[in-house]
């Protein structure tokens, strides 16, 4: 049985790409050309482009812009946070990103299900533990938690970025789940080829 065939079950006036402002249409064209699709969460925001633009800018600044964290590490954080929050959309969409960036379908599945079973470097495991604590008990984070990350060579800026990625996904998870936004069906099938 496949997932339901809608972007969101909310009755919002979503716009076709042709009806979007030129800058948003250009961004959607870029995503289609370079990634093969426009993520459904962006399509779900088309009812209000004044909300869509800052969401895309925030995502770009945290997930794509220069960082000491690799793209894979940022996606791993996103998937682990989404797993804690049981966010179907982000587990599926960003699980595919982990599979693609790592070239390892098993790693993608472990991040979705339980990152603790993955054979990770201690640096990555402590990074993910920190992201989980941001998600579950950020009010308990203290200097000792940040010191663990510093011990692995994470700079102050990198620790900021870990917290920011975790916070971004906590926000996105809650919006996606509360508004019943479904992942693009294509994500289910991406990067699952068995290695030779």
Descriptive report:
62% of the residues lie in helices and 0% in strands. The model has no long low-confidence stretch (mean pLDDT 96). It is mainly alpha-helical and 196 residues long. It has one domain: AhpD-like (Up-down Bundle). Helix 4 (71-84) packs antiparallel against helix 5, helix 4 (71-84) runs parallel beside helix 6 and helix 4 (71-84) packs across helix 9.
Short note summarizing the structure:
The chain is mainly α. 62% of the residues lie in helices and 0% in strands. The chain is globular and about 50 Å long.
Any chance you could write out the topology, listing elements then pairs?
Elements (H helix, E strand, L loop, with lengths): L21 H14 L4 H5 L4 H16 L6 H14 L3 H15 L2 H9 L8 H16 L5 H9 L4 H23 L18
Helix pairs in contact: 3-9, 4-5, 4-6, 4-7, 4-9, 5-6, 7-8, 7-9
The number of helical elements comes to 9
Give the CATH H-level superfamily: AhpD-like
Rg from Cα: 17 Å
Terminal-residue CA separation? 29 Å
**Number of separate strands:** 0
How many domain units?
1
Contiguous low-pLDDT stretches (5 residues minimum) are none
CATH class group: Mainly Alpha
Major sheet: size, sense and barrel closure? Answer: none
CATH architecture: Up-down Bundle
Which class best fits the helix and strand makeup? mainly alpha
The CATH topology name reads: AhpD-like
* Shape annotation: globular
Average residue pLDDT = 96
Q: How helix-rich are the residues, as a percent range?
A: 55-70%
User: Which band does the percent of strand residues land in?
Assistant: under 5%
**SSE pattern:** HHHHHHHHH
């Amino acid at each position: 049985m496949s997932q339901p065939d809608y972007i969101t079950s909310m009755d919002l006036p979503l716009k076709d790409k042709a009806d979007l402002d030129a800058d948003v249409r250009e961004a959607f064209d870029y995503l289609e050309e370079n990634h093969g699709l426009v993520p459904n969460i962006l399509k779900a925001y088309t009812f209000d482009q004044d909300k869509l633009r800052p969401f895309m800018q925030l995502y770009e600044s945290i997930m794509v812009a220069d960082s000491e964290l690799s793209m894979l590490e940022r996606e791993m954080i996103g998937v682990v946070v989404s797993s804690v929050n049981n966010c179907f959309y982000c587990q599926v969409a960003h699980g595919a990103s982990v599979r693609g960036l790592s070239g390892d379908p098993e790693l993608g599945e472990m991040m979705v299900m339980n990152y603790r079973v993955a054979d990770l470097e201690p640096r990555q495991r402590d990074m993910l533990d920190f992201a989980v604590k941001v998600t579950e008990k950020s009010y308990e984070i203290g200097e000792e938690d940040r010191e663990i990350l510093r011990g692995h060579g994470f700079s102050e800026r990198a620790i900021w970025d870990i917290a920011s990625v975790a916070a971004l996904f906590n926000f996105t998870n809650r919006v996606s789940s509360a508004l019943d936004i479904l992942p693009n069906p294509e994500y289910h099938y991406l990067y699952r080829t068995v290695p030779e």
